[in-house]
Write a structure and sequence with these properties.
Keywords: Membrane, Transmembrane, Transmembrane helix. By secondary structure, the chain is of the alpha+beta class. The protein is 48% helix and 26% strand. Strands 1, 2, 3, 4, 5 and 6 form a six-stranded mixed beta sheet that branches.
Length: 125
């Protein structure tokens, strides 16, 4: 193989690696952008009453739903609900402390509404 052919092959391989690298960076960058700009969502997952033994139970009222409208959507409509209010770290901490985990006694919190028990989880779309 002559030097000219070898150089051509090296340039082709280098070009392929450059294109692959650019595609990877674009794909990863787009994913990070989507994750950073998408509002969080909450899901209310039904659980058995037996699973709630020795845990903290919060009995939801209409006042809770007025305070956190997305909670009402997640519980009553049985769907994931967008929760842009939880973008604020202070609000997120307050919500977690009230409905997800009691850090003083180190136990998870389950919520009850009309005799049904739910585990509340927060996700990022």
């Amino acid at each position: 193989m002559t030097n000219e052919k070898r150089d051509r092959n090296v340039r082709r391989v280098f070009l392929i690696f450059c294109i692959a690298f650019i595609l990877f960076v674009a794909y990863a960058g787009y994913g990070l952008y989507q994750e950073s700009t998408a509002p969080p969502f909450i899901g209310a997952f039904p659980i058995d009453e037996n699973e709630t033994e020795d845990h903290v139970i919060v009995h939801l009222t209409e006042e809770d739903f007025e305070k956190w409208p997305f909670l009402e959507e997640a519980i009553k409509e049985d769907s994931n609900a967008g929760a842009p209010e939880l973008d604020d770290p202070m609000v997120l901490d307050t919500f977690r402390e009230e409905y997800m985990y009691n850090s003083t006694i180190e136990k998870p919190i389950y919520v009850e509404y009309e005799g049904e028990y739910f585990n509340i989880l927060i996700g990022q779309s």
